[in-house]
Amino acid sequence: MSAHLERGQLLLQQGKYDLAERELRAALSEDPDLATAHALLALALSGQDKQSPALDEARQAVHLEPDDDFHYYVLAIVHLEREEHKQATTAIEEALALDPEDADYMAVRGRLYFAEHKWTEALGMADRALAVEPDHTGAMNLRMRVQTQLGQREDARESMQAALARDPDNAETHANHGWALLHDNDTRGALEAFRDALAAAGLFEKDLPRATDRLTDLSY
Fold it and tell me: How many C-beta neighbours within 10 Å does residue 13 have?
């Protein structure tokens, strides 16, 4: 594996998207047809909200290796970030056709069902993902969100506790907990959960008062 590709992948896992982009572009300068580098670069660009070039890179990865399920998954992620749900669905279903047992792919398909308000299908995908990978945080969060929508408050609470036990610093889990508490009209608890989400997302302490003031406005 290219040293630049390996470093780029590690930086991407750490959420250091700008540094990952630099390493992945260096890898592509050595081998412009390295499909994996194009796919990872798409994720690095998407993480910086550079969605148009991210889409170009994801499409290039699929073009170079059209039989690789991961590249379709990346394409689905980018389309999902662009709120292009139809295209995202097409891409993730292609990924699942190539590898029907991947928990990440199932979780993304479930998110798309959720976006369409298809609660039963979304919950089914979350449960399928968790059957494959019981500690999949994304699937846990998806299940919690669906259970909240279905009014299954106790089940949602248990899902939230399991997700936080698995990954106590996950910003998405804290945010979903906040929305669940808002459904229960617990604005104080929701605000605290949103504070935890902001902290987990890496905001500086000086930013928290301004951000949580805005959340307070939204919650009443």
Answer: 9
